[in-house]
Batch of 4 targets.
Target 1
Amino acid sequence: MVELAQLLIYGVVLGSIIALGAIGVSLTFGVLRFANFAHGDYMTVGAYLVLPFYAGLQLPVAAAVTLAIAGTALMAVLIDRLLFERMRNAGPLVLLVSSFGVGLMLRSAVQMAWGPRTLVYESGIQLPLLFGPLRIKPDHITIIIGAVLLVLAVHLLLTRTRMGKAMRAMSDSPELARVSGINTAQVILFTWVAGAALAATAGFFLALDTNLRADLGWHFLLPVFAAAILGGIGRPYGAIAGGYVIGIAQEFSTLVISATYKPAVAFAIMVAILILRPTGILRGN
Amino acid sequence: MELLGIANYLVLFLTIAGVYALLTLGLNVQWGYTGILNIGVAAFFAVGAYTSALLTAPATAQPPGPGLPVAVGMLAAMPVAGILALGIGLITLNLRSDYLAIASIGIAEIVRLFLKNEEWLTNGVRGMAGIPRPFAGVDIAGWSAGGALYLALTIAVIGVVFAALQILYRAPWGRALRAIRDREVAAEAMGKNVLWFRLQSFVLGSAVMGLAGAVHVHYAGFIGPEAIDPLFATFIVWVMLIAGGSGSNLGAIVGALAIWAVWSVTELLGQIPEEPITGFGALRVFLIGLLLQVILLLRPQGIVPEPRE
């Protein structure tokens, strides 16, 4: 019982990170209609950008993460302007191939800037807090609370703001959104900012929980997409649910199968949902 | 001596380029002919390589095997890679193309984990050594001609695959695939079974990739889960196809040669300075990524564009 509860905590931590990544993927997919294979590497860039501000300039964590988010968002917008925008007419599959290449370029850039070695934000061991027999690291509490706040922010954005409503409209029907006078260029810009900001935070949380490697985000792309598909691609709320389902399932799977096959669990769930209900839990587009 | 060194290097260069040419031809059947997006090229390559290695490894190899002829291994690599493709294709090919791309990442990851962890079969991270290399040790007038002879075999394999794919491209089968790629709804309205054609194209392309793996393993004599970086191998094959010209088999071969030449020349450039440049490997990967973007923006049809009908 204690073991299950402990695994549940790890699952919620992992699920929080996956959910943040999956919302970003779902938003960009809904508005721009293409699966961004560089999204995992946006996470990596976000995680690494914290380093110069935190370890370098000795800024407080919150300020360093905010600056890293801003940097990642700027990068995402620039990449869209330089590449994706010019290829949009060529169709979503060409964009996908291009984004695959962008991801590899970002990974290489990270390696050039920070070297091939694994890094951490802070060395030393964090003592877990004990809640009865359960052990929780302070970082895990940061991750869970941070994710809940961001999910809430996304919810408010989508339901209460003009921009959020415009994003949903574009996701439901791009043509209808355009004829009803929505400034699509502005919506696209904002979608990249929001998606990249969530990716950067997810990357920071992931690196906080593990460590910094150039392929950090790439290996997270599969669970992130699995969560987005599970929830119904283009449906941010579904992505949140999908993220937690995949995270918890991956942790619980270690009870039955070897932990080395953890990444396969996300894949298995994705395959199952593709067979049973290809549109996902919340009928995606 | 100097000339001999250059000749040996050229043989090495062309053999590896030949393996890439086979991979690119396989991807062309999927992406170029039909518009199927496969990001798991390395997985089918690895499955082919391991299949042939397991069947042909002699009793003295590490780990020992049944020691079947190399031809058997190469021929078996194709159906095994094809069966893997059939399984994954049945699930994803009637869905949207981007779902297959995502699923192919999953397959690649699982194949990598399997090869790494299932030591009883694959010897795990240590990999498999002592796999037969045809013509190894053949000596013609003091020159060890094994490499050159294997290159000739590789070229022959490419020739057969190229000819077969050209015939299929011109056949009604190839036209049906292109119809599905360009106008899926129209093809369906004409009574074409879209899923069935996609499945055939995906399986055929993956079988060619499996063959590429077998050709590689009998050249190297060794295969391990880290022998090639799966992600980079997949990526460079994509760059080769797009650069050469998706849809064109000749373009696939030209693209493989051109991009492998660029890659090899940049490697040689890195060896000129006395101090190794830090991050040079990453810089090369970055530049190949940049090259892909430039091609997509400026010449999306590639060096040898697909012929217009």
Target 2
Amino acid sequence: MTILKILIWKDLKDFIRDRRSLLTLVSLVIGFPLLYIGILGITASKVESDRNKTITVEMFRGERAKDLSRFLETQGMDVQQKSGDFDKQTFLDGPNSLAIVIPSVFTLSGPMGGQKQRHSIDLMVDHRDQDAQKQLQTIQGLLTAYGQSIGNRRLLLRGVNPAITDGIKVRLVELNQETMAASIVLQLLAAVLSISCFMSTLYLTIDSISGEKQRQTLEPVFMLPLHRWQIYWAKIVVCCLVALLSLIAGALFFTYICRHPSFQSAVGLYAEFSYGLAMQGVFIFFPLAILAVSLQLLIATVSRSIKEAQGLASLLGIGGMLPAILASTLDLDGDSLVVQLLPSISQAKLMEGLIKTSEIPVSQMFLSCAGSLIVAVLAFFIGQLYFYQEKVLKTT
Amino acid sequence: MIEVKNLKKKFGKVEAVKNVNFTAADGVITGFLGENGAGKSTTLRMIGGSLKADQGSVTIDGRLVSMRDPQSRRHLGVLSDAKGLYERLSTRENIELFGSLCGLDKSTLKDRIQSLVDLLDLSEIIDRKTVGFSTGQKMKAALARILVNRPQNLILDEPTSGLDVYSTRHLRDIIRRLRDEGICVVISTHIMQEVDALCDSIVLIDHGVTIGQFEKQHFLNEYQAVTVEDAFVSAVDRASEGRG
């Protein structure tokens, strides 16, 4: 135990003085929450600016639908009247992505026109513009509303209450707007924690074995009166400790920002999101972090150079996060034993549960822990066995 | 005392060590001589326990050395060609680490470090991180690290390589002093002046096979040479002729 303590202390000291490992860790703990929150903020401000943006629509033969033009203008649209016939190429070469073409037989100049047949107008859209789809939805909504208002006025003229055409009246009552905000924030936290598991200790694990091999510091220690497993255990303990600290620090920093009034007003997400909930996230992801550390140490042990180890560990990072991404896109059965056991996926599913109920189901948590820790222990023992091979001292 | 018997080691198809035998006694400096690639370092790594021998045995003070028996290395200090200092730790921390891993308590460690500072003239570098050390400084720090435990048996692989004249002389004095204290010292080298100046006993190795073990004077007589260098060349030439 004393030997282990000495080795742990040495590895910790070595890590704390290694600027690159520390910088990687700090930039990850601060960087990723900021990145995600930044993306959220940018998205929110884009939505807000889109909402306030004036949509420009070109209108051909607008003199035949003056009432429609007025209606659109009162709804905040910029209607540009165009003379002549619609020309596809000219329109595509122009600055706008929407055009309304009134047909030549369209004679309705107001709601009192009294035509018995329904008239159609052409709505042209150029999808090359990124915002075209959103603008299209807005203008389609307005045109529907305009059509409905004409219909209502016709019914009124005939002495019929337009309300009778509504088969059912729907009133939208949002009961959990705050929960929805918390759910968005928790999903982001899950992503931050998942990345932290595979990235926070990447440099440390590689440096602690591949780096030592390259600096030839392992062999002199191998010749001391101590077991090699003690050296390996000390390394895994230090790496797991750092992984846990980075998970906690990342979660706390993320929560602090999300709870900050200036962030909430900037993004418009007023989430009821507590530090306790964030710590539950850490609890869910810690077994995955242990698994990541075990696999990274195994990679560092079998690799012949730092570069080889870094390459493989980066692939592991991508591979490790893939299942969670897949789980969010595929509709996996959360009750399935395999899903509950599979590392990364099981954590993603537990986070989903946490979002809905703010609680971690004990049995599901147990299975998730077991799944990750079984693979971690396996990787750990393979790494430790390899540590006794003389190949471990070979470098390219 | 170190006893090596019928040691063999292969790396893939390459037979690095084919049959090495020698005995290094206490209070004697044993020179382990051979050309580059003769199998010296591989043999020393097997003695140190970092490599496992395919065949043969190594005993240190009567105890069989095994990779899985750390206590078999308790009385051994190895200074390998790779000095392997922890660059982010100071010289003191490097020495403390090795001392505490060998089971020394804090007060003993403190006294030993102070005596090593005096012995190896470490006062200038003792609290400096070892990154950026010169070859001589690295050598001193690495030597202090293995001496802190006061091992009864010392293996020094090319100890003076890269050292200037003054450092070399100083190191030779230290090695002699250790020998006089009754420590078994094995030095691997291909610098013949070093063997001339230091060694009491000589083990010759060529192409992974021990040619012989001699007292220094006996070695010179055997090959009818005036210097160790001449004797070494004659011995290697004779071995080559013998291999055909």
Target 3
Amino acid sequence: MTDRTLPQRSFSVGMLLYDTRYRAMTIQVVAIMCFMLLVAWLIGNTIQNLNALGKGVSFGFLNQPASYDINQRLIEYTSRSTHLRASVVGLLNTLLLAVMGCLLATVIGVFVGVLRLSHNWIVARLMTVYIEVFRNVPVLLWIVFAMAILIDTLPRPADFRGENATASMYFGDTVALTNRGLYIPEPLFMNSLGDLPVLGVFEISLDLLAFVLVLGAGLWATARIRRRADRIQEDTGIRPVTWHWRILLLAGPTAFLLYILGFTLGLPELKGFNFKGGIHMRNSLIALWLALSLYTAAFIAEAVRAGIMAVSKGQTEAAYSLGLRPGRTMSLVILPQALRVIIPPLISHYLNLTKNSSLAIAVGYMDVTGTLGGITLNQTGRELESILLLMACYLAISLSVSAVLNWYNDRVRLKER
Amino acid sequence: MAHSAFVRDGLIAPKPPPMTEVGAIGWMRANLFSGWLNSILTLASVAGTVFVFYELLPWMFQSSWTANSVAECRAAIAGAHGDGVNGACWAVIRERYLQLLYGFYPANMYWRPNLTFVLMLVALSPILFPNLPRKMLWFSAVYPFLGYFLLWGGTIWLPISILLGFVVGYFLIALNSARMGLLFGVISGAAGTVIYWIYIASWFAQVAHDLIPIGLTEVESARFGGFMLSTIIGVTGISCSLPIGIMLALGRKSDLLIVKSICVGFIEFIRGVPLITLLFVASTLLNIFLPPGTNFDLILRVVIMVTLFASAYLAEVVRGGLAALPTGQFEAADSLGLDYWKSMRLIVLPQALKISIPGIVSTFIGLYKDTTLVSIIGLLDPVGLTTSIRADSAWNGIVWELYAFVAAVFFVFCFSMSRYSMHLERRLQTDHN
């Protein structure tokens, strides 16, 4: 029998380069050395430059008082609060904008994407025009444009005053749309449960918590009933009528809770030069919300259209031949299958919207770029630390959003065997 | 009993289809009024469209093109179309459109950006239209230096001297790889080029300029602005990021764990942060990262950061192209005995890049739109210029006209590029389904 093993040669330096067994390792070692050298070079330069400027790297400034005001805050904040708290306020504003934007963008995007495939000639054309116009103009331009519309075309608060007011409130004097923002009624509770401090950092309203809990329980119960109805339908072919139970379970406890808490609406009222009371949505928030949503919705609409087109025509025909109407065909047959194609691009559009929300700085909305990367940076002169923290914030948002949505994507993906 | 059954022995002449099924009425019934929901949608759409045009058209056309300030403009509109008419003041566009296009570039030198733009189209054409002669690619290679010289001016010897660096590198590679193998050739070529750039290039430019002074009037970066600036940043960003993006994509697909993790880390980091934070880095931090005393102008710093930004996105586009390639292609290249770089260069990348061209174009569209963000760090791109024009006392109060103009120009550029990319997608489709 011949010896099939390779002749054992003694190791030589050239083998590191020309022997495929070692070359991968050599390249990697060289790569990591180059990378470390680059990083070391950058850090060395940074230290040298910072020393020359006479400042080290320190995050101590986060505990100093911020001494600037933030006009929209979701948690307690005064100008005596720290820079850290200012950053958190900004971060919450970013998240608020991102969540509101994603919701509205999804609604508009799905609507437009479905309508673009409509057989109705004029509707399909209009939706195409909408998509092309919004996709091909920079989002920053849309934001400043929306801001200009809100400021220049809406009535001033003063126009609401007096006998011959030129502007009036909507929905029975409950909603006021002014060039300073939108005033809507706020929920007030006569027998409020108070606030629950969380870790001594911020407070959550117990009323809200109770409301969410009761609503959640109601939703869970209705889901149970629906599943039971599904099971009965599968067993017997007859679906029990459950809608009145579901409505009762959902609305009953919630209404009871609201009654106990003494629920009233705090209406906005014109006092002095401005509206007081109610929830004030600043026009910077509204402009950003609309501009970002409409812009992103155009992209989402294209993704939805692509997803629907990816479902083969046979599925539609099969559903029609089963006697399903077009609306139900769309919601029961086409969209669930299209969802698998739609979700990956949808994730990236959500992330784009979140990142684009940093353009808030152009209209003076105090998001995390405006507080941490704007005023805090300018006041403390800590560019390096501020920008690193800012990037870390966005990176954390991006990575966690994509992690959650990727998990969801894995769940709805077609299981191939 | 006689059979009285009727048997037809000829065909009935076909009747014309009912009026409601053919022609304009039939089309409308099928496409606009096929059901009550569709009818409502149609009527609502028509009403909405008519309303928008009814509001917009008078504003657009009851306008003034000749006034020299907002007040004059309003007076002219009131005089021509009656009091209380709200018309557009297009005069601001007539007066400032050159500024919106070129920024504060000296007016007597507009031929330079114009020529650069035309030459850019020439340089791009062999890449976009494969049936043009391949020799034109040489011009594309020289073009960046030519463009720099035309736009910024100064001595012609500086770009030539930098270009010479590549020639030096090429000769070193050709010489040394023949003697010592390809790897050492490449390393010595790269090292030689860098050494030449750091120590010899500026000296050579100086000496050559003293001997034969050829040059154009220098234009400093602060005068750059408008769509010219957007185009410079966008085009430079995308073309510099293409090689980096390809390298990152290859790195991400590679089996080498460390190389792969460096590439993945870079790509995910850049894609995870907004462009505006990278622009903040350009405006405040970049000088801190570089050796003490380094100071170059803001446009260059912005271009560097935009290049890094675009390269991460391009890497993902190219990775998509690589993933779309059947594994058989990689295996065929391996079985031919080609080494990694040869198989990439000759087999894999030509196909992968062809697939990713539409993606590259749409990345470019996105980048071109994103160049408006530089207005936030104080550069005078079209959006930044609208703010400064509105601050002018003569045009204080102008809002819509400027935005409409800027938006229209962006729309024309981006829309035509996206149409081109769709056309390309169809043309590149070589399969037959």
Target 4
Amino acid sequence: MGDITILDALIISIIGFAIVFVVLIILMGVIYLMGLAADKGHVITDKLPKFGNPFKKKKEEGSANEEESAPAPLAPGTCGELTLVRTEDRDAAMIMAIVADTLGTPLNQLRFISIRRVDDAEVK
Amino acid sequence: MNFSLTSQLIGAAGSNVDYGETFSFLWESTGFFNLQWGNVVMIIIACFFLLLAIKFKFEPLLLVGIAFGMLLSNLPAAESDWIFHPEWWTVQDVDYINVLQHGGLIDILYIGVKTSVYPCLIFLGVGAMTDFEPLLSNPKSLILGAAAQMGIYVAFFLAICFGFTGPEAASIGIVGGADGPTAIWLAKALAPHMLAAIAIAAYSYMALIPVIQPPLMRLMTTKKERAIVMKPTRKVTKAEKILFPIIIIIATCLFLPSVAPLLGCLMLGNLLRECGVTARLSDTAQNALMNIVTICLSVSVGATAHFSTFLNTKTLLIIVLGLVAFAFATVGGLGFGKILCWLSKGKINPLIGSAGVSAVPMAARVSNLEGLRAKPGNYLLMHAMGPNVAGVIGSAVAAGFLMAVFGGGA
């Protein structure tokens, strides 16, 4: 298709815009269905242990107890411990990210020993 | 310049070499001999773009390459020394044997643009870098991504009114998709003679999103609407993330097979990222491959801005229509954002609609910033990322449609 009239351009614009909408609405439906299937999948897997292997069930219970007592696994690149004094985890994470960004050094190459909140009175 | 006197003098001394002719050839091959006013103008424009990229950090990763490519192809030289031959690429059937035998450096690099390899590889990297979780957790984002494609069709219609042909108008309109690789992919197929102007317009406006969008956002929304705090979205499972690229490419290509190269690469990159067993490939797509292709693409696209094809009134019109496309894309997204806000009884902040113009993640950042300005602590970034990545899919679908209508198998 080469030269087209203004009317053709208007029609093509409307059809094109409508097609983008139709395709993306269909994709939206597909994603909703996927989400629904994922939720249903959880419901089904939650029910599965009732019919599962009894040995497997015991093992899972045992491992669940172990998980409760064991500390959370360390993130890759973790070294030592970080002491937080009057500082929230979220704030500490932000501070570490800002320091890494400012220094231009990857976070796993930096070692933070402690992060302490300093009050205005202490600064003075 | 006449070298005959030199030749006679040296010849009289007993030399067999015609030094006059040698000096004459040497002089004719210099840049000074071949300098035209167009070269000077384009070198100034290239230096201005370099200034924008380096000093003001306007999309520097792309603009430095584009500006330098522009500089290289506009350096004055004899035609036999040109590193890029624009006239070879505007014909219907490119003579690739001639390109490989006699082409300059940029001619060889440009094969990647002409065959769509670069835009598709860029999409592979974009897919590997993009987290579709915000879209999966809030599928309504796709409507906003579709609405923001309005700019493409408004600019297309206006371009036809200004006398451009259908394929040219389609290539200009796609600037409104705010997606560089998609714009290049379509323009190289439909209007290769306008590729440079379109690519430069697309990337320049993407860099100017923080300037273009906020006034429109404030104009179209009330402060109360901008201050709406959205609820956190649901958690997405790993299985959903893995299935998403596979299902999307099948579903989309059943409707628009022409979009397969772009969307296929986007979804392949995303699958490499999410499947969990191809970490090395995902890393390569996100970093090494993406950087190499960006260099090749930006330099070769910049080189197409040769003064013989770039310096005309059409280029100015393309730049203006590109701005119109961007503005209407923002208006479309915001308009549908307001409709969704009304339908959801004030649960959706209309600001996230403007992020539907692609330009990941710049447009989402602008939505976030405007939300924070209206109400401190109102972080919209994750909510705006949904329409933002939906916009990438939307602009690819729009490009696929235009290619199907005007491409004719290009």
